Amino acid sequence: MQNDKIIVGITQGDSNGIGYEVIIKALADPRILEQFTPVIYGSSKLFGFYRKTIPEVEQMDTNAINSASEAHPKRINIVNCLPESTYAEPGQATPESAKGAITALDIAVRELKEGKIDVLVTGPINKKAMSNEGFGFPGHTEYIQNAFGVKDVLMFMVSHRLRLAVVTGHIPLKDVCKNISEEKILSKLRLMNASLKQDFVIDQPRIAVLSLNPHSGDGGLLGTEEQDIIIPAIKKANEEGILAFGPFSPDGYFGLGHYENFDATLAMYHDQGLSPFKALSFEDGVNFTAGLPVVRTSPDHGTAFEMAGRDEADPRSMRAAIFQAIDIYRNRLDWQDLQDGKIDPKFLESRDKSDRDRPGRPQIA
Fold first, then answer.
1. Could you tell me the pTM of the whole model?
2. Contact at 8 Å (CB) between 9 and 111?
3. Dist CA 308 CA 21 (whole Å)
4. How do strand 264-267 and strand 119-122 relate by DSSP bridges?
5. Which residue ranges of the chain lie beneath pLDDT 50?
6. Going by fewer Cβ within 10 Å, which terminus of the chain is more open, N or C?
7. The dihedral of CA 210, 215, 219, 222: what is its sign?
8. Would the CA dihedral through 124, 194, 209, 152 be positive or negative?
9. d(CA 364, CA 75)
10. Percent of the chain predicted with pLDDT > 70
């Protein structure tokens, strides 16, 4: 690489959504180039089109390149992945924009594997449109998991208020129960525990586990998954040294703010976890894929076609995704140095102290 700053790869996502707008706004402050080197996978032509729709953003120093290996450390670099004939149709889910999203993602992941970028931030996509073009995966998470040949990963939603993951991800609600198993919960708890240590530098993470049924099943009256599956999984996690607690009924857990007492929360299915997460943290929420050998994040919102090209999109989640990726990358380096004995373990203690001393955290004997 040509410079010692972290190189952040950013995919355009669906070019007819708000992806370019939030990327441009997130990178608009020229001082940002002092902190990292951005490499956008997409189109200089589309970047220019959307920049002109944002009056408050003046000229930006861009650099058209063929690969991140050519990135200029003081410019916004754009790897041109799409044909020159490409054009924007803001607000429309088209075959062309879906194909462009797939191409940009393919090239970015390839360069991530090759070490040409340090971390990857993915722009929002339209899953249905991409599926129609033969994408073959429910979303980014599954695509990147397959690309790196990893058995299991964790969709980890992260903000300044809450860290939350799910046992089952992008599947129909009717299929959730049959996809909840003791081993699957245990696998997610292992991934979460390891990520909290390695990626967030938390020495002894505490994890809350939510129930599947209302009121945690009411002793079996409203379902037996808690007694038959979830509680045994928590007990096995405890036996492995994982500080897992629960199961907690989601309504009271979020309504009474109990999530503030834990380092992370494991929900059973997508909307059970992501609905309260987005209600609490929509502006700065980040989707992080834990369990990969590389760092990948994304904003926690979709393409928002209804506001595309209208200068209405909020860039805070994209900006948070960029800086969260950088933080996790650096944390992993620190963690590895700790394992190699290159830094004092007290470093972790000082990083973790402010979080562990929060009032109301469960005390473990």
1. 0.88
2. yes
3. 8
4. unpaired
5. 1-2, 352-365
6. C
7. negative
8. positive
9. 49
10. 93
